[in-house]
Amino acid sequence: MLPILQIGPLAIPTYPLALLIAFWTALEVAGWAARRAGLDGDHLYNAGLFGVLALIAAGRLAHVIAFWPAYRLQPAEIVGLNPQAFLWGPGAIAGLLVAAWYVQRHRLPWPAVADAAAMAALVGLIIVQAGALLAGADLGAATDLPWAVTLWGVRRHPVPVYTALAATLALAATWWAARRSLRRGTAAAVALFGWGITVWLIEPFRAESATILGGLRLMQVIGWAAALSALWLLRRRTAEE
Amino acid sequence: MSRQIWNLLFGAMLIVGAAWIWLGRVPADGSAAPTGLPPAPAVGHPAPDFTLTTVTGETFTLAALREKPVVLNFWATWCPPCRAELPELQAAHERYAGEVIIVGVNQAEAAAAVATFARQVGLSFLLPLDAQHHVSQKYAVRSLPTTFFIDRDGIIRRIQIGPLTEATLAQALKTIFP
Question: Quick one: CA dihedral B115, B121, B126, B132, positive or negative?
Answer without folding.
Answer: negative
